[in-house]
Specification:
With about 160 residues, the protein is of the alpha/beta class. It has a single domain (about 5-140), classed as Rossmann fold, CATH 3.40.50.300. Helices cover about 40% and strands about 15% of the residues. It has helices at about 5-20, 35-50, 60-65, 70-75, 95-100, 115-130; strands spanning about 25-30, 55, 70, 105-110, 140-145. α1 (about 5-20) packs parallel to α2 (about 35-50). The protein starts with a helix and ends in a 13-residue tail after the last strand.
């Protein structure tokens, strides 16, 4: 039921996960183009193989649309006041750290809505928890969203 573009993304990510690869992907598309359907299909098929996959979103509404979804702040203990708190809130010995190390795929929907610092904190936390110098701790991460929904940033003139 996936269209041609969805099938290409699905196959690329699925193969990378099942072959224990690493990497990050970004799925960009306007609302209604099937990003959530792609995430759901990917997560269902990988979970059916017994693989652990985490699904998060920048908002609670988007998280509710993905099976097993939670907000990124909740799942990865990202502080709301990110500018003043840069140290990881996840202990390497915690059950959450074990879950992160065991997971094969992390899907983050509505990523353009997140603060840049939240993504940087997430990346740093994965490296720390996984004791890795690889990007995102060597995990496969799929970011998705629609940059057309984000307002442009216009710098202040001085």
């Amino acid at each position: 039921m996936l269209n041609e573009e969805q099938r290409l993304a699905y196959d690329t990510i699925y193969i990378r996960v099942t072959e224990n690869g690493t990497g990050s992907f970004f799925l960009d598309g306007p609302g209604g183009t099937g990003k959530t359907f792609l995430y759901t299909t990917l997560l269902a098929n990988l979970r059916a193989r017994g693989l652990i996959c985490l699904a998060v979103a920048s908002s609670g509404i988007a998280a509710a649309n993905i099976p097993g979804g939670r907000t990124s702040n909740s799942r990865f203990k990202i502080p709301l006041d990110i500018e003043n708190n840069q140290s990881s809130q996840i202990s390497k010995q915690s059950p959450l750290a074990e879950l992160i190390r065991a997971c094969k795929l992390i899907v983050w929907d509505e990523a353009p809505m997140a603060k840049r610092q939240s993504i940087e904190y997430f990346e740093k936390t994965l490296r720390d928890v996984c004791s890795s110098t690889k990007m995102f701790g060597g995990k496969i991460v799929v970011f998705g969203g629609d940059f057309r929904q984000v307002l442009p940033v216009i710098p202040k003139s001085t």
